[in-house]
Write a structure and sequence with these properties.
Chains A, B: Belongs to the formate--tetrahydrofolate ligase family. 2 copies of one chain form a homodimer. With about 550 residues, the first copy, chain A, is α/β, with parallel strands linked by helices. Chain A has 3 domains: about 300 residues, P-loop containing nucleotide triphosphate hydrolases (Rossmann fold, 3-Layer(aba) Sandwich); about 120 residues, Domain 2, N(10)-formyltetrahydrofolate synthetase, CATH 3.30.1510.10; about 80 residues, Formyltetrahydrofolate synthetase, domain 3 (Roll), CATH 3.10.410.10. Chain A is about 35% helix and about 20% strand. In chain A, strands 1, 2, 3, 4, 5, 6, 14, 15, 16, 17, 18 and 19 form a 12-stranded mixed sheet that branches. A 4-stranded mixed sheet of chain A has the order 20-22-23-21. The first copy, chain A, has a 3-stranded antiparallel sheet with strand order 7-12-13, covered by helices on one side. Chain A is globular, with a radius of gyration of 23 Å. Chains A and B meet through helix 7, strand 9, helix 10 and strand 24 of A and helix 7, strand 9, helix 10 and strand 24 of B.
Chain lengths: ~550, ~550
């Protein structure tokens, strides 16, 4: 069977200027990066601001399983199908991180006949955005320790430094380190650690900023730590924000690539969907909405994590609202939510599908709570049976939505044509009445409880007294108006990854809260959240290399 | 006065395809990175291999002082002058490192009217090469710790791991760390540290490899540490070399930019000139020699460090030989070598110049020892007097060379026209008879002693018995044939940075030797060598930012 890389390589790519022309982007707006990638200049982006907005379609999914549900392929397939039907469409995706690429997960450019290309280049380095973000993160870190070294004028308490270093690599050995060892010339020893770049607040800032001024202002607001008496010290206090913005300037321009079908795709930014908001940059989404009649974009993990944050954090920050929502599911994953072991997924099990639908149904209803019309994309596997599919269709019909079988992985645009027509219908229907789940004025604890109750179906949130006090302190410091970004496992509506399906009445145990003042949200951590993955016993990196012609092999 | 950035910004840049066309590079060979930078495709590089080589001119300098001697500006000015005189010329330079940019040193793209542009982009990220090198370095590091974590099949001794992590930032807090703290999920705690990217062996490998196969093979030979019984463990043993090569593939293509005069410049790679060999990539130099009749390139620090390594390491590895050598000096620096304090450099002091010439004279004679015809470029400052300049001219005439006043910083190509004519004369004279200082078969200790005696004028090398034993062990392991890369202070011929001028009879104290099996040299460290700089009390970063139009300001 042809691998994703085989299919990507076999494709004939259009020159990027031709791709741009298909959506009306003039040649002068392009900053080419090779023949098949380009950044869209910030001046061009600015010049589009007064144009009307196209409709926004959010692609999200059920609680993910190791089997993979296919949100990215669905986003790409849907975009290609809409374009094929004559709707001027752009897709907006996250950039892949190098870490997972060398670990277990592989790349993040779709798969089968629903990919963005050039696959190898997007997965490795791309236009350097993540490297710029890593550099900005680490410049701030170096300036923090340098400030301590030269006398600590601002009075930072070395025990209260919250700013960690970043690397775009799965490297568990850097999770927890003692830094500045070795004596006087190396500074004051202290505990520190690295997060993977997608977990850096700089990534979240980069993805939420509306323009360069906003970027600089948000960078300046980043809190690196506190003084002994609890006063916040910011990147601006350290005079690091200007240089950080300079490091990010070129990266801040959205990246244009193409799908296998030659349609335009913006791929820009990529924060974690747990401790950050998990979707591509506001810059890319807003630009796409100016350029296209329909924009299809995705949010990370399941709809409880990614879509909730997309709606409550990103849409709020960007002043945008979706017209429709696609929830992606697979029969295989529904069977897993219905209790079937991975080894038995190939056999028909209608009863298990019926049980597992509870997960899908709740995600659909949750999206409806935001005022969005929903359609379900059932990403087809050859092992799916008619009877299993029928069960899903019936269940969705009862929720007032439609489950549509999609075969874009195998068939490209044609495989998502039905889905595209359904999405066209939802947009044309004009029934979307988007409202965020909570308003700015609610207390931070209230916001957390609202998400837990309405989205997770938790009966309560367990907030330890020190955590509650910290939330009140954020409010006293003037940060009560920001949204909350809840970090919990993506595998369950609850904080327990083993609770599949649609658990009810669980208690969400809040462990810690952090203020991301630059990004503009409070992170609320429930359970163990990993901000630096490790490599598996046999990392994908072992199989990656160059063939005799210098082509990259082993990426998947 | 106009800053370098003002001058660079005021310049009208040619589209990079026009710059390429000036030297006969076809449009198809270009991988554009924005409008004014391009990589030259590896297929194009291969297609040039059978063409005859142009003449190579090495620009080096006296022992540097904080005043700055101007090797990079001289390289650029000389290139522009040769092109203006009708000689088809290309320059080849190192890429700047981000670290110094934010520290005290500023960028590294020349200055005044002798710059390569776009200045801001070359100094910040450029085409991402250093980020790719950092990633490859850190992937290997992550795979080392991951190997320990999953059972250590290869039997690596955690105390004998030599491979350090890298970051392209001046960050003293990372020089010495304890990593993998925090318990079982994070691995086995051990001592570790970060070097700045330019000090990574991956950088040296990148800059010495002749082609992709050579790159992959060298990466595979990198030694990450030893087993308990002293057996070397390599990147190939860890199956990391393929993925490292994949990470480096695109970066490995040389970068084309232009000088302020619109002439082509290759800017590619940039290893440290102490623990590595300090000059741009073999790929760039060899390609430039295929494309141009004359190639002007520079080596880092003074000629005792940079030029010696260029000649004994790079020329040996690349199979190339220079036709002429330019030694750059300033009257101000000669005065400092003659004992004048920095505050008094503005006043005429012929006697001090006469004393300081000892430093210049030795560098000139050293280059002559390699069989190279030499010309001295006297980089003009307005405070230089006729009498001072005359002293330099006379002294150089006695050495059979010429000192030529250059004003390219103020006047661009016209200011280096005399120098260009002298260089044309040296090349046309055909007197170059390049020989490396020592042959492959000499013992490693013998090679170190030869450089110390012939170039540094040391009376002896103090090699502690354990260091001598280590050198013998490298020879037993089959690495006796490689050249040596001596790391010592750049400020003196000796290992004592305060010994200015031309000290004689000093003893070179060898502290440590390391085998860079991938790069293909043995590093011999004399004195304290910093592989991770720190930031100053007021880092340049504090003044860097974006202006109201989004342009970068504060770079210098």
């Amino acid at each position: 069977m042809a691998t994703d890389l085989d299919i990507a390589r076999a494709a004939t790519l259009l020159p990027i200027a031709e791709v741009a022309a298909r959506i009306g982007i003039p040649d002068e707006a392009l900053e080419p990066y090779g023949r098949h990638k380009a950044k869209l200049g910030l001046d061009f982006v600015d010049s589009q601001r007064s144009r009307p907005d196209g409709a926004l379609v959010l692609v999200t999914g059920i609680s993910p399983t190791a089997a993979g549900e296919g949100k990215t392929t669905t986003t790409i397939g849907l975009g290609d199908a809409l374009n094929s039907l004559g709707t001027k469409t752009m897709i907006a995706l996250r950039e892949p991180s190098l870490g997972p690429c060398f670990g277990v997960k592989g790349g993040a450019t779709g798969g089968g006949h629903a990919q963005v290309v050039p696959m190898e280049e997007i997965n490795l380095h791309f236009t350097g955005d993540f490297h710029a973000i890593t550099s900005a993160n680490n410049l701030l870190a170096a300036m923090v320790d340098n400030h301590l070294y030269w006398g600590n004028e601002l009075g930072l308490d070395a025990r209260r430094i919250a700013w960690r270093r970043a690397v775009d690599m799965n490297d568990r050995a850097l999770r927890s380190i003692n830094a500045a060892l070795g004596g006087v010339p190396n500074g004051f020893p202290r505990e520190d650690g690295f997060d993977i770049t997608v977990a850096s607040e700089v990534m979240a800032v980069f993805c939420l900023a509306r323009d360069l001024d906003d970027l600089r202002a948000r960078l300046g607001r980043i809190i690196v730590g506190q003084t002994r008496d609890g006063r916040n010290v910011t990147a601006h206090d350290l005079k690091a924000d200007g240089a950080m913005a300079a490091l990010l300037r070129d990266a801040f321009a959205p990246n244009l690539v193409q799908t296998l079908a030659g349609f335009p795709a913006l791929v820009h930014g990529g924060p974690f969907a747990n401790i950050a908001h998990g979707c591509n940059s506001v810059m890319a989404t807003r630009l796409a909405m100016k350029l296209a009649d329909v924009v299809v974009t995705e949010a990370g993990f399941g709809a409880d994590l990614g879509a909730e944050k997309f709606l409550d954090i990103k849409c709020r920050a960007a002043g945008i609202a979706p017209s429709a929502c696609v929830v992606v599911a697979t029969v295989r994953a529904l069977k897993m939510h219905g209790g079937v072991a991975k080894s038995a997924l190939g056999a028909e099990d209608v009863a298990a599908v019926r049980r597992g639908i509870a997960n899908l149904a709740r995600h659909v209803q949750n999206m409806q709570k935001f005022g969005l019309p929903v359609v379900v994309a059932l990403n087809h596997f050859t092992s799916d049976t008619e009877a299993e599919i029928a069960v899903v269709r019936e269940a969705m019909a009862k929720l007032g939505t439609e489950a549509i079988l999609c075969t874009h992985w195998a068939d490209g645009a044609a495989g998502a044509a039905d889905l595209a027509r359904a999405v066209q219908g939802l947009i044309a229907g004009g029934t979307a009445a988007f409202e965020p789940l909570y308003n700015d004025h609610m207390s931070l604890a209230g916001k957390i409880e609202t998400v837990a109750r309405e989205i997770y179906h938790a009966s309560a949130v367990a907030i330890p007294p020190p955590v509650a006090a910290r939330l009140r302190r954020f409010e006293e410091q003037g940060f009560g108006h920001v949204p909350v970004c809840i970090a919990k496992t993506q595998y369950s509506f609850s904080a327990d990854p083993s609770l599949m399906g649609a658990p009810e009445g669980h208690v969400l145990p809040l462990r810690e809260v952090r203020l991301s003042a630059g990004a503009g949200f409070v992170v609320a951590i429930a359970g163990d959240i990993m901000t630096m993955p490790g490599l598996p016993r046999r990392p994908a990196a072992e199989g990656i290399g160059l063939d005799a012609r210098g082509r990259i092999e082993g990426l998947f």
